[in-house]
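Consider this one:
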Amino acid sequence: MTDDAPSLARDAPGSTDAPDASDASDATGAPDPEERTEVTDPGHRPLPLVRIATVLSAIGVVIVVIALVTLTAHQRTEGRLSQDLHTVFWYFDVGREHNVATWYATGLWLLVAAVAVAIALSRPPRRRSWWVVATVATVASVDEALELHERLDGPAQRVAALLPFDLWFTWVLIGLPIALVVGAVLLRTILALPIASRIGILVAGTLFVLGAVGVETLNGRTLARADGVVTNTYLYATMVEEVVEMTAVSLALASLLALAQHSRATGTLRLDPRVSGRGGAPSAARRRPPSGTRTQPADRS
């Protein structure tokens, strides 16, 4: 009988329920502190994409400028000085392999691969795509050092023979479709990224294809017209191509690094919750009913 008796203190006219802390939070519209930390967490800020991309691209530009200056000075001097300048040019010539320029371009791709592996190991949604990114970046790094793409010239000769014009670097006929397929495979993952990184990677991919395929094709036409003789026009165009490529990879690396968030208070890094899949709205189990409502007890009958 006592279970069915109404509580006078609770049901008396004019009486009000004493709100607990959670009701007060809901009444003011303020989110639960734990939820607020999970969703927004103002203590974490993404790494500076533009600043990182600018610094990395500037290093590539410096390498090309050194190559340009030493090439020009070498061609305008004679004797031992000219030879020494040519030696310096060789170390920074972006058209050669096994030098400073190659080391830097290879290092950029390796860093892209390392960041992609770190993201994949955090087990985000579509983590297989991040392993694809890591694999592609590793292969690109090896290609920078060993010029693997030029091995495609042989198979591409059959296709090039059907073209109405001479194409010196025939590898682009195979390289471009490969690049488009890789881009299509990764497109969904890229479009799901935060907007800054998304735009950065899309621009980087466009720039890289423009340099590696577009400018390379024009360079091949230049060589074909000169019967394979390397002219200053070809050297200058190669410098433009490599600047575009290094800028593209620098932007891609910066866009991936911007997915990491840094807390100055704790000095820690974390992956953006929108990428890791650990952010978003609070779960239903943690939602509370609005203030002033009661949860009906379960029917025991």
Remarks:
- The longest strand covers residues 260-263.
